[in-house]
Amino acid sequence: MTSAIDPARLRFGIGQPxxxxxxxALLRGEGRYADDExxxxxxxxxxxxxxxxxxxxxxxxxxxxxxxPGVVAAYAAADLDAAGRRELKCALPxxxxxxxxxxxxxxxxxxxxxxxxVGECVxxxxxxxxxxxxxxxxxxxMDIDPLPVLIDPRAALDDDAARLFEDGxxxxxxxxxxxxxxxxxxxxxAVVARLTLDDQRIAVAPMEPRAALxxxxxxxDRFVLRAPSQGVMGMRANLAHALGVEKERVHMLTGHxxxxxxxxxxxxxxxVCLMHAAHALGRPVGWADERTxxxxxxxxxxxxxxxxxxxxxxEGNFTALKLDTVADMGAYPSPVGPMMPTMVxxxxxxxxxxxxxxxxxxxxxxxxxxxxxxxxxxxxxEGNYVMERLIEEAARLSGRDPVELRRRNMVRRxxxxxxxxxxxxxxxxxxxxxxxxxxxxxDWGGFPARRAASEARGLLRGRGIGCFLETTAAPANEQGxxxxxxxxxxxxxxxxxxxxxxxxxxxxxxxxxxxGVPHHLFRLSQGDSDRLIVGSxxxxxxxxxxxxxxxxxxxxxxxxxxxxxAAALFETAQADIEFADGRFAVAGTDRAVAILDLxxxxxxxxxxxxxxxxxxxxHIHNSSPSAYxxxxxxxxxxxxxxxxxxxxxxxxxxxxxxVVVNPPxxxxxxxxxxxxxxxxxxxxxxxxxxDGQMVSGSFMDYAMxxxxxxxxxxxxxxxxxxxxxxxxxxxxxxxxxxxxxPAVTNAVLDALKPYGIVEMQMPMTAAKIWAAIRAAxx
Length: 778
Hints:
Helix 10 (about 340-350) crosses helix 11 (about 380-400). This protein is globular. The N and C termini lie far apart (about 85 Å). Among the domains are: about 5-30 and about 475-490 and about 505-515 and about 535-620, Aldehyde Oxidoreductase, domain 4, CATH 3.30.365.10; about 410-415 and about 425-470 and about 625-778, Aldehyde oxidase/xanthine dehydrogenase, molybdopterin binding domain (Aldehyde Oxidoreductase, domain 4, 2-Layer Sandwich). The longest helix has 28 residues, at about 545-570. It has 20 helices and 28 strands. The chain is of the alpha+beta class. Strand 14, helix 10 and strand 15 (about 355-365) form a beta-alpha-beta unit.
């Protein structure tokens, strides 16, 4: 007979609030990050970087660097060119509105002929110690003739703008939607809401700055790189292209990652230089960035600017949306730079609402600033921010209640599946019920009393709603491998990569329920390209749909193999074998074997006829469609009119993430995203001066939210399972940011209404609010 279900395992199944198993090693100080790695004979690299934002590079003098004691080598662009190293290029399959393919300017690994932003790599110096490498980098001579500097992306297309490239500053002129239908709707509109909105440039600023350790295996003729990433398989392919070698000649390794938020998904010039140096010198070469240089050389986030308009008929129905976006690519389009305004934001701007016609234009332009890449949400928060701000403006202009205006235009559940003008298809969701629950949880009706209490203390109080709906990235094919190890553990192999999300805990919960193997016996292998077959990496809130579905498929394959093996072991027909609670049993008998015991029997022999050699599997899950997480955030703020200081007093979020495997992990992910949204709404801003020098290049000058800036979040789940993947999951990693941006902004503007202030750009700092109140009083 099969054993009874272990009560302890019930606490670790799908939907249970199990503690993260990843955290114990980190709390004990056993994390292994890129800068923790050392190899025998290791050398160190440092980089000479451009100190001016734009100029003709007439020459690079490496001789002073080579004269520094301890320096063993130095490289400029010509050295990498001679070795066949390639430029870094954005190869997204995007087209201009005239049908021509995007021809994005490539980024040289080391500056060649021209420098285009402060912090650009010009030379790589390798030495015996980090200190000698830095001294050598400082000694590199650069002959640069300054050129005019362009910082404002909105001025990039002016006739008199500084030109970064021979073909100009326009990287991509893109359009989606039905412009004629939109113009017709606007011509007949009863109300048109128009806003100009800034989605300011953000510093990603992860806890762990970028670092890497390169080696070259001469015997195998292979390059090896240890570096943070969001997926080793994609990184391996991109590194191989930059090196000019086959991808099989690159071995990519990622250990622990101290935050990424999209930034570490890309290949950076430093990595290519390190691998080139390791090959040339026959010794490992390491590098670790410092916070000061990370501010100027990491990819930044956001940096989009919108002219947006929403048309409504006399009954308050949305009829059309028009959006003109200028997207700042920085000095060179990153591999994902043009993706946000063209491939992601258009799929998210519809939100929960019926909007029959859309016309979305975006122009991606180059400026003398650090390249812009993905940052938490990568177009999803922007789309929801624009729509939610337009709804508030439309309610103001039409005199309608903003809650009722949302309700009127939300897609009803009986209308699903619903196809938007951007051809996204919402499979299921209860938007009205979710908003109603959020209003109830936030005590919407009790707000007037709280506002009166704030006013009695000399404070302004406002409330804001941020409804959101995201389109997750469509998961590519993903591996779900299982290895039944000799020590009795089971290794999960997956091509997504955990950099804080809790993948091991989540996947172990799924497999504990499916295989009956106790959760503490699972291990996760994700950061070694040699152990994987495919892998789409982590990004776009798709990991659970991809890896979750893959491990479900792997579990099913392992069970089928186990039934064949158990049938051979018990000398019975496979049809007589049942599997439950981690045991294979002959139906109607007490003959049974645990799955781990059966795996050991197959491994240790003797061989069973008509049985597999092991229970190991390498399942490949074919990609699932995107999912549509959604929710409503409701925020109340207090503002001191004498100082402009904003305090978030109440924050309620009710979300539909489909099936939730681990509630505490999902809640934590959502809170983290909301904190980053609060940071952008109230304080974060990368600032360059007119000469292209960053004046917010340290934490003394760049404000990030701290614990005191975040409220006690109230989190609720109201799930409607997705119909498009085996788990019914919808993704949650970026949703907090998507709800926070509009909710916080709307709350601040609501508090400022008594002064007639109806518009303000992010970040809504205390100084900006104070100045606006002073101006309104004047």
